[in-house]
Amino acid sequence: MKGQLRFDEWMNISEENPFPKPVKGRIQMVDPCYYCACNSCINNAENSKVTPDEVSDNWDPCFFCDDCRKFDNDTSKRNLEREECIRYEISSYHAEQNRKSFKVMR
Question: At 84, is the secondary structure helix, strand, or coil?
Answer without folding.
Answer: coil
